[in-house]
Design brief:
alpha+beta, eight-stranded mixed barrel, five-stranded antiparallel beta sheet, 50% helix, flat
Length: 753
C-alpha cells in the first residue's frame, strides 16, 4: 500500500467514527416518521370513535345530573310542604314563602287551598287552577310538568291531620333550567334541550333554533344511513331508549345528535355537538406537524448525544448542583421532594408529617448584624434540625429563611414537643455565633393521610396552616376547618366592594349617658354588615380580616361619611346635635397624612367642631417609634375640630405614661374592669383611674356596663358617662332616634315628678 493511500485511510477514520452514529440515528428517524405517517391514515376514524364515546358518556352523565336535580327539587318542595300546616295556624304563610324562595332554587312558591285561593311569594300569580297536576296533588300525588314559557311546575300536597288541605307549587324559570341543561364539557360548542315523546320542546337550549328546526337541519338528499338513523331516533324516543348518530347538516357541517330519556315524565334530553369536537382541523396540520417533529427530533438527537457525553463526565457535579443547598451544604427543596418520592412507596397512611418552619423577623438579623452573620445563623439552624432527625426523616432549606422537615410522627402533641426542643436548642446558638438574639418560628404542619399526595401540595398546606394562624408561633396543623376558614375569608373579601357600594354596611349607634344629669351625652357609631343573601355577618368575622388586607381603611371612611350625613341631616331638620364617636383602625397610621381626607369630608358636610370623636385603640400607641407621629396626629385632629378618645384603656398595652404623652380628650375604660365589680382591688383601681383622669382634665367613659351594681358604683365615683346594655344595645339610626327621644322625655318627666 502506498504512502498516499495510508494517509487517506487515517483521515477517513474520524469521518466514519462521527457520521456512522449520525447515519444510524437518521435511519431510525426516517423509520419513525414513516410509521407515524402510516399510523395517521387511521387517525381520523379513531378520533371519530373517541368523539362518539365521549359525547355519549358526557351526555349520559348530564342526563343523570339533570334527572337527579329534578328529583331533588321535588324532594325539596315536599320538605317545605311538611312545615306548612303549622304556618296555617300562625297565618305566616306568605312570609314563609318569601323566605323559602330566597333560600331555595325555586323562582316562585304558591299555596293553593281547596277553594282554589292562592297565597304566593310574588305579586304575579300564574293561573294554575286548570292544571291536571294541581288536581293530582289534591289527590295526594307529587307532580312535575311545564307551563307556558318553558318554566317547570312542581306540585305536592299539603297534609293536615292526614288530610290534603292544599297544594304547594314551586316554579323554576326557563333561564334557570337552561343553565342547568347547558353542557359545559364540549368547549362551549354543545347545545342541549328537553323534549317529550311527541317532540314538543319542554326546555329549549340557549340557542334553540337548531332544535326548533330539526326537520330542516338535516341535509336534503343525505345518505340512506342518516335517514335510517333519524327514523330510529324517533322510535327510540317513543320507547324511551338512548342513542346517538352522525349526520351532515344543511350547512355541510358534521354533527352528532345524542338522546337520553330523563326518567322523568316522558322527557328526553337532546344534545347536539360538532363531530370534529376532538379532531377539528387535525388533518390540515398533520403534515406540518410531522415535518416539524422530524426536524426537532433530529436536532434533539444531536444535542442528546452531546449532552449524554457531557453528562457522563459531569454527572456527580450536576447532582451536587441540583440537590445541594449552596448555603447550608445540605439538602435543598428539590432534594427534599426526591427523598419524599422515594419514601412514599413504603409510607403507611397517617405515619408521617411535613412541617414548615419560617424564621420570624429574620430580616432584622441581616439588618442589625449583616448578611454574613445571617448566613451563619441559617447554617446553624440547618445543622440543629438535621441532628434532631432520625432514620427515614430528613430536613431541607426551602428558600431564604424557610425550612422543611419530614418527620415520622402523626400525633400533633408529639410533633409540637419535638419542634419545641429543636427551637430551644437553636436558641442556645449565642454560644456559637457571636450575637445575642432570640429566634422564634412560624410553624405549620400537614399530617400525611394520603401518601400519594404530591409533595408540593403537602408543603403548600403546611405553609397555609401557619399563615392562617397569624402571629402565633405555636405549630398550626392543616385541616378541613382551616380551609373552610380560608374560603370564608376569600368570600368576604369578594363581597366587600359590592356591599360597600350597596350600603349593606349599616351604621348603628349606641348611646353614652351622662351620669351627672341622666341625659344622652353622645353616641358611638358601630358598623353592622347585613348582606341581602348571607344575612348578618358579625364584626368579629370581618374586622380582623379587613385589617389584614387594608379594606378597613375604606370601611372606616365609609362609616365616617355616614356619620357626617347623619349630623348634616340633624342640622337641616333643626334637631339637637349629638356628638358621635367613630372607630379609627391603627392601619390608618401607616400613612401619616391620612387625616386630610377625613378633614376635607368634614368640611364638605359643614360639620361643627367637636361633633365627631375618633376612638383609637391602645395598639396604635405601641413602640417608641410610634410616639412622636401619633402625638402630632392627635394635635392635628384637634386643629381640624375632631375630638380624640383612647378606647379599651387598661386591657392591652396601656400604661399611665400614655396619659402623659398623648393629649386625648376621653378615656374609655375597658369592660374587663367591671366584670368583677365586687372585688375591692378592682374598685380601687377604677377609682384611682377616674380620679387621675379628672385631675388631668380628661373625660371618663365606662363601657360595657350592664348591671345596676356597676352603675351605682360609677355614680358614686362621679364618672362622666356610661355606655352599655343597661341603657341600650347598638341600634339602627332610625331606632336610635326614637329611643333617644323617648329616653330624654322620660327623664324630663321623672325630674318634674
Amino acid at each position: 500500500m502506498s504512502i498516499k493511500k495510508r494517509e487517506d485511510d487515517i483521515k477517513m477514520k474520524p469521518f466514519y467514527s462521527v457520521w456512522a452514529p449520525i447515519g444510524i440515528v437518521s435511519f431510525i428517524l426516517i423509520i419513525v416518521i414513516a410509521i407515524m405517517l402510516w399510523n395517521t391514515s387511521g387517525l381520523k376514524t379513531v378520533l371519530e370513535n373517541h368523539t362518539d364515546s365521549y359525547v355519549k358518556e358526557v351526555s349520559y352523565q348530564l342526563t343523570g345530573e339533570i334527572s337527579a336535580r329534578l328529583q331533588a327539587n321535588k324532594a325539596m318542595l315536599e320538605q317545605l310542604a311538611d312545615a306548612m300546616p303549622h304556618l296555617f295556624e300562625d297565618e305566616n304563610v306568605e312570609e314563609y314563602l318569601k323566605i323559602k324562595k330566597e333560600e331555595t332554587v325555586f323562582d316562585g312558591l304558591i299555596v293553593i287551598d281547596k277553594d282554589k285561593n292562592y297565597i304566593s311569594s310574588d305579586a304575579v300569580i300564574p293561573d294554575l287552577k286548570d292544571f291536571p297536576e294541581i288536581a293530582a296533588s289534591f289527590e295526594g300525588a307529587s307532580e312535575l310538568t311545564y307551563v307556558e314559557g318553558q318554566s317547570l311546575l312542581f306540585t305536592t300536597p299539603i297534609y293536615f291531620n292526614d288530610q290534603v288541605e292544599g297544594v304547594l307549587a314551586g316554579i323554576r324559570d326557563k333561564e334557570n333550567m337552561q343553565k342547568l341543561i347547558q353542557p359545559h364539557s364540549f368547549s362551549g360548542s354543545g347545545l342541549s334541550c328537553i323534549i317529550d315523546s311527541t317532540g314538543q320542546v319542554v326546555i329549549s337550549a340557549t340557542d334553540h333554533k337548531p332544535f326548533l328546526q330539526l326537520e330542516d337541519i338535516f341535509k336534503r338528499g343525505d345518505k340512506q344511513e342518516t335517514i335510517e338513523s333519524i327514523v330510529k331516533m324517533q322510535e327510540d324516543i317513543i320507547h324511551m331508549e338512548s342513542g346517538a348518530f352522525h349526520f351532515t347538516a344543511s350547512d355541510n357541517s358534521r354533527l352528532i345528535m345524542a338522546y337520553h330519556p330523563l326518567g322523568v315524565q316522558d322527557w328526553v334530553l337532546l344534545t347536539l355537538v360538532p363531530a370534529n369536537l376532538i379532531s377539528g382541523e387535525t388533518d390540515e396540520y398533520v403534515l406540518k406537524m410531522f415535518l416539524i417533529m422530524s426536524g426537532l427530533i433530529a436536532v434533539f438527537f444531536m444535542f442528546l448525544v452531546i449532552i449524554l457525553r457531557f453528562y457522563r463526565k459531569n454527572r456527580k457535579w450536576l447532582e451536587k448542583i441540583a440537590f445541594t443547598d449552596p448555603l447550608t451544604g445540605g439538602l435543598n427543596n428539590a432534594a427534599f421532594k426526591v427523598k419524599y418520592q422515594n419514601l412514599v412507596e413504603l409510607m403507611k397512611p397517617g405515619s408521617y408529617a411535613v412541617i414548615m418552619l419560617n424564621v420570624k423577623g429574620f430580616k432584622l438579623i441581616n439588618e442589625n448584624y449583616g448578611t454574613k452573620v445571617g448566613d451563619e445563623v441559617l447554617q446553624y439552624i440547618y445543622q440543629v434540625l438535621s441532628r434532631f432527625t432520625e432514620e427515614d426523616e430528613f430536613v431541607a432549606r426551602g428558600e431564604a429563611d424557610h425550612f422543611f422537615l419530614c418527620l415520622k410522627e402523626n400525633d400533633p402533641t408529639e410533633i409540637q414537643q419535638r419542634l419545641d426542643e429543636m427551637i430551644k436548642t437553636i436558641n442556645s446558638f449565642s454560644a456559637i455565633v457571636d450575637i445575642q438574639y432570640h429566634l422564634s418560628f412560624f410553624q405549620g404542619a400537614c399530617l400525611i393521610t394520603e401518601p400519594g399526595t404530591d409533595i408540593t401540595i403537602l408543603q403548600d398546606r403546611a405553609r397555609i396552616a401557619y399563615q392562617m394562624q397569624g402571629s402565633s408561633t405555636a405549630c398550626a396543623f392543616y385541616s378541613s376547618e382551616l380551609i373552610q376558614e380560608l374560603k370564608k375569608e376569600q368570600q368576604l373579601n369578594e363581597l366587600f366592594e359590592q356591599s360597600l357600594a350597596n350600603h349593606d354596611f349599616q351604621v348603628y349607634l349606641q348611646p353614652k349617658v351622662r351620669l351627672i344629669d341622666g341625659m344622652v351625652g353622645s353616641a358611638e357609631a358601630l358598623v353592622r354588615w347585613i348582606h341581602p343573601k348571607y344575612g348578618v355577618i358579625y364584626p368579629s368575622d370581618f374586622i380582623p380580616l379587613f385589617e389584614k388586607n387594608d379594606n378597613i381603611l375604606k370601611l372606616d371612611f365609609y362609616v365616617f361619611e355616614e356619620v357626617c350625613k347623619l349630623i348634616q341631616r340633624w342640622q337641616d331638620e333643626g334637631k339637637t346635635l349629638l356628638p358621635i364617636s367613630v372607630n379609627l383602625s391603627r392601619v390608618h397610621f401607616k400613612d401619616l397624612s391620612f387625616l386630610r381626607a377625613f378633614s376635607k369630608l368634614k368640611e364638605s358636610y359643614q360639620i361643627p367642631d367637636g361633633m365627631i370623636e375618633f376612638e383609637l385603640t391602645e395598639s396604635v400607641f405601641f413602640g417608641h417609634k410610634q410616639i412622636d407621629p401619633v402625638i402630632n396626629i392627635i394635635r392635628q385632629m384637634h386643629k381640624c375640630g375632631f375630638l380624640c378618645s383612647l378606647d379599651d384603656f387598661g386591657f392591652g398595652f396601656s400604661s399611665l405614661v400614655l396619659l402623659k404623652e398623648f393629649d386625648v380628650d376621653v378615656i374609655k375604660l375597658d369592660r374587663q374592669f367591671f366584670v368583677d365589680i365586687s372585688n375591692p382591688k378592682t374598685k380601687n383601681i377604677i377609682a384611682g383611674v377616674v380620679e387621675l383622669a379628672k385631675k388631668l382634665g380628661v373625660e371618663i367613659v365606662a363601657e360595657g356596663i350592664e348591671t345596676e351594681e356597676q352603675l351605682r358604683f360609677l355614680k358614686s365615683l362621679r364618672c362622666d358617662m356610661v355606655q352599655g346594655y343597661i341603657y341600650s344595645k347598638p341600634l339602627p339610626i332610625a331606632e336610635f332616634e326614637v329611643w333617644w327621644n323617648l329616653f330624654d322625655s322620660a327623664h324630663h318627666n321623672s325630674l318634674r315628678n
